[in-house]
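Bench notes, afternoon.
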Amino acid sequence: MAVHVIVYGHRVVALSIPLAVALAAHIAVLEADHPIARWVAAMIIFSDLVNHSELNGPFHSSVADAFASMVLLADREVAALAHLPDCQLAELFNVPLKQIAAKRAELAALGLTDPPTSGWPERPA
């Protein structure tokens, strides 16, 4: 039985074993629809898929983080709304704000959007 230590933002957020998950206290107090709780939940789903051999390879939080990004921030939808500021995208997709900058950089590297900016709208001249 593998125990997966799930790390987000340089902090342990959960421990996952087959059929059980223990959330860190700072995650357990969040409402279910809180952006960080949703992100951690997606990471836990990835851990569960690895634990049940539905995905190959060892578990690593960075891969779980990439999985959460894939699930919660679909490339096409984010690219279509890339003109919006980061704060609006984070609210629209209900994800942590820092994930928007990471997704912008990822999409730019894939050539799907313009290079990332600060995410703030331009000031009128």
